[in-house]
Amino acid sequence: MARRPRRGRFWALLWLGFVLIVLAWVVTRQTSAVVTARELNALRERRVTLESRRAELLRRLRRAESRAVLVPKAESLGLHLPGDSEMVRITMPEPGGQ
Prior knowledge:
There is one protein chain. The chain is mostly helical and 98 residues long. 69% of the residues lie in helices and 0% in strands. It is built from 2 helices and no strands. The chain is rod-shaped, with a radius of gyration of 38 Å. The chain starts with 7 loop residues before the first helix and ends in a 22-residue tail after the last helix.
């Protein structure tokens, strides 16, 4: 018994199946891209928030280290700023030198 040649309906169904598979792949890829874009936007927003918080903390740190804050705190503890005669300069010897 000889095989019958493939008819037009077979090829049409084959191409339709191929097109549906490709379209399903494209939809999946696009959906993945949308999810990734949302995650990227969320991470960017978080980065901006963290950078602004870091800037605020650095500003507060510089303020806390300033003389305007430290001198009154030191004076309230009974400390004073050293005079010229009270300052001693200490030098480190050169490494390997005798």
